[in-house]
Amino acid sequence: MNYPEPTGPPVLDAAHTAALLPYPELARELHRLLLDDTVQVPARLVQALPGGGTLFVMPALDSRVAITKLITFTPANAGTPRATIQGDVVVFDVATGERRLLLDGPTVTARRTAAVSLLAARRLAPNPRGPLLIVGAGVQGRAHLEAFAAGLGVTEFVIASRSTASARALADHAKSLGLKAGITPDPNAALADCPLAVTCTPASGAVLQAPPRDDAFVAAVGAFTPTMVELDAALCRRFAAQGTIVVDTADAAHEAGDLLQAGLDVAAFATLRDVLRRAPDRLDGARTPVLFKSCGWAGWDLAAARLALR
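The structure assignment produced for this chain is given below.
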């Protein structure tokens, strides 16, 4: 039997998806989305899979666009040729119901997560010049390096990873972009020289314990369930007592493992939306350390879809 050639909206691979989502523009679209009162983000479905993986079903919509991100997270794939995050973002037109795009899910996840950290750093970092300490040299480590270079103008990076080969590969990538990059075996010691830090590890244990600089901005993105953790509990409590903690969304109240395991009242912390919707205050230029805790949200994927459609 002869079947007709498939037609319809484009199905984009990782490279084409990335090309539609440059970091500075994506950060601006995330900002616009947080000010858009038509945005709706239902609770995501998180389904445990046999063998330790997780299926995420994440819908979101505004007055024109509806999306659903369908991804799997498989920690056992770490260190193998298979990605730990796999899936797609399906983009629909609200008025007609037609599918407009199919975006590569891991690419959207990596780029929008890094762009959220970039947006937070632009607004909250007391000293945004760097160097930037990156703990974890995987997909998110690379995305954050590229995002902070493109969106903040950071030119110097310090990389820490359990895998020396991965750290070297990321440092080489930075140098290929004309940036300076070094490797450290001790991220806690490196904190003293880095006003910017990002933790993007598999979140199987605390990787930062040392007291932060007075002008520190730390974005913690690896832990997105109550049982995951990247930051020492005492460090989280130090940020709460002597600095500022901002979470990406109110959903962090039941997802931010770092903060929950530190016994903190996560619901009491300001969200990124709260920060962006109020006039600049003491956080701008303040010499107090800032922790930005990011757990993920389908609204970030909606912002990526909105930018891709344009």
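Interim note for the steering committee: The chain has a mean pLDDT of 94. The chain has ten helices and 15 strands.
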